[in-house]
TrEMBL record:
Biological processes, Gene Ontology terms: base-excision repair; mismatch repair
Record-linked SMART domains: ENDO3c, FES
Cell compartments where the protein resides: Mitochondrion; Nucleus
Protein name (record): Adenine DNA glycosylase
Keywords assigned by UniProt, alphabetized: 4Fe-4S, DNA damage, DNA repair, Glycosidase, Hydrolase, Iron, Iron-sulfur, Metal-binding, Mitochondrion, Nucleus
Record domain HhH-GPD: where: 100-252
The enzyme's E.C. designation: 3.2.2.31
Biased composition annotated in UniProt, kind: Low complexity: 1-11
Gene field: Mutyh
InterPro entries to which the protein is assigned, alphabetical: DNA_glycosylase (IPR011257), Endonuclease-III-like_CS2 (IPR004036), Endonuclease3_FeS-loop_motif (IPR003651), HhH-GPD_domain (IPR003265), HhH_base_excis_C (IPR023170), HhH_motif (IPR000445), MIG/MutY (IPR044298), MutY_C (IPR029119)
Region named Disordered: 1-38
Protein family (similarity comment): Belongs to the Nth/MutY family.
Amino acid sequence: MSQLRAAAAARGVRRSGGRAVPAAGQSRKGASPRRGAPAPAPALALAYHLFSDPAEAEALRGSLLAWYDKCKRDLPWRTLATTEPDADRRAYAVWVSEIMLQQTQVATVIDYYNRWMQKWPTLQALAQASLEEVNELWAGLGYYSRGKRLQEAARKVVSELAGRMPRTAEDLQKLLPGVGRYTAGAIASISYGQATGVVDGNVIRVLCRLRCIGADSSSPAVIDRLWDMANALVDRSRPGDFNQALMELGATVCVPKAPLCGECPVKQHCRARRRKLFGKPTPVPDVEDCCVGGCPLCPPATEPWNSSLGVTNFPRKAAKKQPRVARTAVGVLERRGCHGAPEYLIVQRPSSGLLAGLWEFPSVPLAQGLQEEEQREVLADHLRAWTGQPVVPGALRLIGEVIHIFSHIHQTYVVYSLPLDGDVSLDPTLSPSRWVTEEMFHTSAVSTAMKKV
Ligand code: SF4
């Protein structure tokens, strides 16, 4: 492709599939660039980081879809998306899978998904479920607010939208709580065939490698560019398959640490691979290289290309914030049930915030730096409120510590046990509480962290 054509493509509005698509670098609404957007870059630099040649974009679509048709994993939500004739049911099936797959591996999701769809095969069925039932089924999947929001949104569709799912990505995002831009794009493209792109972690990795985008891939400016690229690249006749193919490539071939470039169906379009094979860009500017100093999409000058990393130079992210460190004392209260089997007291967490509505052993946050004796006293005070009877700190037996990593919290649970003689009266004005056997505990809506405890 000539430099002139590349420069022209990067300058203005491109036509794609009969629809005008703003070139990357322009605001989607055509307004002046918003705050945080990169400074306008020379056309040559943009061309290097885009799919400016329509023939190349078409070839990439063809190779990717042919590979997907041959190699795609057989997954229950994919089967439903292709076999379910009813558009609302199809969209619901895709929606559930997309919410479950956020932050969770496919292998873990399959069993949860099958049980969920068996129990609540339609929006209407989910809308009638209680939050307790949703939490019970979700237990162990993590990020519990996802299940709650899914159910709230299902109730909204049934009560306010007459049971009809919104039919475009824009309306899905606007009308359904908990549905963001990615989920809306996935539902609309897979269920309705709307020609709209998606950008998730897998797509970010693949696109950044294909086009050597080394600027911070979590920055709004780069994310905007990637959305423009995904929307321009999506196959107009098979948008759902194309989006799934791009994500599948990222999940199975273009993986984070050791990508299988030799098996990659789009390797001939990959600039990161080219850079790895042929080394540094040539000193004479060419559309195959980005030689423009200060390019907003290249790796920053402070972190140049590292040849030992090869294609994994891309994508790059700003350093993650360190998780907050927290300590919590947990009291496992045990009594003999009516048949002599041990029973344990569990209490319900508040209906908002971390692990909302889930059940746990009575727990109390600890200030940092407390001595063991002080921790015991804090917990004894807390348990006194639950049991309505004095709890002597010395009666609490230290069992050990359990560490659980939430996405943003490094949590240590300090676990104590307290065997009780006879019954205790629980204060009904406090959060709901109940006694459960070990078996009941495991089928209750409890978090993975509490199961570890
Ligand atoms: Fe990813 Fe390698 Fe394929 Fe490039 S060639 S897209 S780096 S797997």
